[in-house]
Each structure stands twice: as structure tokens, then as C-alpha cells.
Design goal:
This protein is α+β, with helices and mostly antiparallel strands. The chain contains 13 helices and 38 strands. Among the domains are: 338 residues, no CATH class; 121 residues, Neutral/alkaline non-lysosomal ceramidase, C-terminal domain (Immunoglobulin-like, Sandwich). The strands form ten sheets. Strands 1, 4, 5, 6, 8, 10, 11, 12 and 16 form a nine-stranded mixed sheet that branches. A seven-stranded antiparallel sheet has the order 7-2-3-34-35-31-29, with no helix packed on it. Strands 30, 32, 33, 36, 37 and 38 form a six-stranded mixed sheet that branches. The longest helix is centred in the middle third of the chain and has 22 residues. Belongs to the neutral ceramidase family.
Amino acid sequence: YLVGVGRADCTGPVAQVPLMGYANPEQVGGGLLSRLYSRAFIVAEPEGSSRVVFVSADIGMVSQRVRLEVLKQLRSKYGALYRQDNVILSGTHTHSGPAGYFQYTLFWITSKGLVRPALRSIVNGIVKSIDIAHENMKKGRIFINRGTVENSQINRSPFSYLENPESERKRYSSNTDKEMLVLKMVDEDGHELGLISWFAVHPVSMNNSNHLVNSDNVGYASYLFEQEKNKGMLPGEGSFVAAFASSNLGDVSPNTRGPFCANTGESCDNPQSSCPVGGAAMCMAKGPGNDMFESTRIIGQNIYLKAKELYEKASQEVTGPLSSAHQWVNMSDVSVQLNATHTVKTCKPALGHSFAAGTIDGVGAFNFTQGSVEGDPFWDQIRDQLLGEPSNETKACHKPKPILFSTGEMTWPHPWHPDIVDVQIAAIGSLAILAVPGEFTTMSGRRLREAVKSEFDSHGTRGMNVVIAGLCNVYTHYITTYEEYQVQRYEAASTIYGPHTLSAYIQLYRGLAKAIALNATQELPRGPEPPLFNVTSITLLPSLSVENAPAAKTFGDVLQEVRQEYREREVAEVTFVGANPRNSAENATEHNFLTVERYSNISSSWRVVLNDASWDTRFYWSKGSRGQSNVTIEWHIPAGTEPGVYRLRYFGHYKKRVSFLRIISVPFEGSSSAFQIT
């Protein structure tokens, strides 16, 4: 094959924008722990015209808006080379990245509308990573390996999983998929290019009290792998690209100690995930570490170490033709042939009451509980008044789900949920990547993989490796099995196209697999094109106004100085007169907020040893009154740090009025005093 890899920043605004994932309006960005990246991999046939692009981006999920804008840019740059059928865009599902890049109304509620800078950063970052991969195409080889990851996940809805038939459950040793699948890419001389790992776990080691933008456990795994391979480079630099992509993570949590009542400390591992005192709002899962930062590192390191082992031992080469199949489908109206006599249908999208309960990884508001199969007259009445009552048809279609939001019947100012959804498979030789538009649960993913594998087998393409890539192309929440759907925990309440959603997807992906096996992808109907709404900038983000420094101070001045000396495992900390970090995001796509620098006696100069993409640094912004704000930079000095003289620097932009109508952004910087590490 010809192989190309690329990585580009897609962080966007790190302040004032809500974070995407927990749907908690209080959880707004207030700084940076680690940068977010888009990682792109292009594989092409040396002679033929076939190629496949796989992108994994450190974002909550790929939205339809992001996908349509990326495809538009690729079309104008490359013509028909990169298209909706051969480009897969997947989100890692970190819950600590900026929100606001959606065109469907439901997602605006907790995102403060459509946040253009966030959307722009993601789209441009994805396109740039593809550009870099495109420019770096070279002859190469791909190897595949798989293995088991231990101590890194639990099923967070085990009572739903137990609803699946016993005969089916008996075939599996665990209620989560522990398998990791790894692709290793090298050039023809054996130089290492990159890796893609697929593993099913929610990147929710950082909980909903976090305000620092970061890529969570899988992002930490990428960071460790890239630091290891790009020796001597700063984080985010260097040619080796390591993507840790999402899979069927719907019911899989990294918070391995399981659910406990925050107030009493007793277990709340029950069908309602509810506590005797305080109800569901008190039931939260704990990770393996003492705090969320440590848990993120422990889970990330586990994933990294397994990937490293599988990567180093990968010897099975991937060979064979490339192909891709794609369709747009109206998921609110699919007829599914269950057997010779039975046809069922999917529904217009709707969310059930338990959607509002959240999960043990991030509890909901107003004390909704999981496992609600009856509505609540109080909330139903409020909903009927505000948003309109669901139609009888939708109610009947979704049974036994009690509908909280009938999103498929809500169209103001734009539809609340998508009807048109992408289904897509890309095959690289013996590997089939199923790009799915949401979060399949463990058992849903197993059924889908098995169905696609048997479809390939029955058309003569035997021994395919089938992997699910999660959160691709458009976000449609969760996909549970029919049996899991009946007990209506969070994942089931969020299976928006009704009880037969999974059966519909299995039918559709079988059709794609058959087309690939029979070399008939050209004959697949394209399906109805998704809409691109003309979204006016509806945003509740505060506007960027003129900023001030305190009296007798200027931007970048130190307010609280570092100590004169530190030891390893201590935290060096400095506070500056700061400015809104959004100014910087709107000025430069790749703004670095901080550096850690070490003084070199040999060259009598300062050398940058860390930047803001490092997991050892934390950048906090806090807004004061009268246009003033502070920035605090922390360096958590790791064991093994070279002794010597160091300093911390800060780079920002402030807004200044130059005339009645004109406000400009002015760059500035600040530095701590020098300090010793002993």
C-alpha cells in the first residue's frame, strides 16, 4: 500500500465554552490540561485509484455538521479523491472537549448554541491532518494484531446486559469486550509511521466536575505512545502518529471501582443506580486512582502498554484490495425483515425519561432515575406545555420507552435530531472497519460484528477481521439490543430510533458488506442527502470585550510568584495578570499558552522542555470583575526531572479598544522568576 499519516491541533476555545459529553450546563471550559488532536491515516492502492481515509479526533463525537463541512473542503481541494464513502471520521468520545459544533437543536441546549470557533477548529484540524497525511504518502506495509486489555473497564449497565438471552451470554467470558485491535504502519524500509488501536471504553476518567480541556484516558495513551516514538520532540510534534479510537463503548465505563453513594460510601450497583438517601443524583462510579487525574493516567497507561505490546509483536500482514461502501439512510423509517413472517419498523427519534437520569459516570439533574418504564406526570405536563406532547404513533412505536422529548416531532428553529444517518464500511484487505453513528453497547456491537462477518463469509470473503469504529459521521446517541431496550436504563432511553434500531443497523451493514464482497459498491443506492441547515450564529457565549489589567500592572505581570526551589513530585505554580484565552483561539489556530523552560549553561540560553500539550502542565483561567482575569500555570514536576534552573512562561492576547468602532487583539507574554529543581 501507499500509507500516509498526519496529526493536527483541533483544540479550539478552552474558556467559557461548555464541554461536550455530560450535558451539564455548569461544566464550562476554564483552561487546558492537554491539547486535542485530529489524527489521520490514508491507505491507497499503489496502482489503483482506491483509497481509504480513517480519522480519529479527540472530540466527543463527530457531528453531521462537522462531517459535511469537512467533505465540502476536501471536495474543493482534491476533487473526487476523498468522498463520503471512503472517508471515515470518528470521535474518541472524550467528555472534556469544547461543545457547540452541532446543527441539531437538542445539542444546542447544553452547548450555548452553535459555537463557531469550536466548529471551525475541529473542521480545520481534521482537514489539516488529512492534508498532512496526503502530502506524506509513501510505500508501506500494515500489520494487524489483537489482544486482551485487563483492569480497564466495567459494564455500567450490567442489569441491562443480563436481559440478553442466557444462551448468548454464555458464549462470552465477560460483560464487556476486552479485545483491542491494533494496526501497525511502517514504510518499505521498516521505519515506523503510526498505529491505530480500537478498544471499547468510555473516556470518562475525567468526571463532570472537570473544567480543563483534555483528551481523557485514550488521549493520554496517544500521548505516551507518541512521546515514546518521537523521542526528544515536544508533545504534539514529531512524525509518528498514534490514534486510540473508540469502539462499541456504549455501556462501558473506565471507572473500575464501580458505583458508590457519594454521601454514604455504600454501593449503589442496583437496577436504578439509586441511593437510599439522595436518590440517583448521589450514585457515582469511581476510577482506580485517588482522583480523576490519577485515574485518567492509570487507565490510559493500561491501554498504552497493551497497545505497545501488540504493536511490537504484530506480524500478520494486511494485504488485499481496498474498498468502501456508504449509504445515507432515513433511520426514522426503516422496515426490518426479522424473519419470513415478521416485519418491524424504526421510529421517529425520541428520548426516554431515563435519558435525563444520566449514568454512574455523570449523573443527571432533577433526580430522574434509570430504568423508568413509566413516565412522570409532573415532567410530562411541563414537557407538553413547553415542547408539545408526543404523537400517539411515536408513543406506540417506542414502547416500553416513556418519552421525555419527542425530538423527531420538534422542528423549531431546526430539527432537534437527525433523520438521515450515514452507514459505512471501509475494507483494507482483510480488515473491515464498520463506521457506526453512535454508541453501540457491548452486546449490540457483538451482534453487529458477527452479522457482518457471516455476511462476508457467505459471499466468499472468508476470515475478515471486523472492527467497530464508534461515534462516526453523525451522532445518534446509543444503540442497545432489543432485550436491553425493554428495561430502559440510560443507554436504552437514548436509543433514539426505537426498539428495533439495532436490527435495522444489522440489516443495513449486512447490505454494505455484501456489496463489498460482491464488488458491487457502485450499485448501492446513495440514499437521501442530509440537510445542511443555514444556521445563523445562535450562541449564548459572552462576547469578547475590552479587557483591563489591575492598577499599576500590565498583562503578563506576575501576581503570585513561584517558590525559589522545588523537588520532583511537587507543583510549581505561578499566577499572572491574564486575558481571555478565547482571544488567542480566535487569533491563531495553534496558540501555545505556556512553556516550561530550562536554563542551559552551555549555550547561556533558555530551552523549551514542555509546552501546553504536556500532561504535566495545567493552565487555569479565572475571570474577575471589570474586565480583569487571572491565569495560573501549574507544573506537576514528574519523578526523574533533570535538576537545574527552570522558569514558566505564559503567552496570551488581550482585547484593546483603538477607536470607537475598532477593538484589536494584542499579544503579550509573561514569565515567572527562575527557580531551582533540586
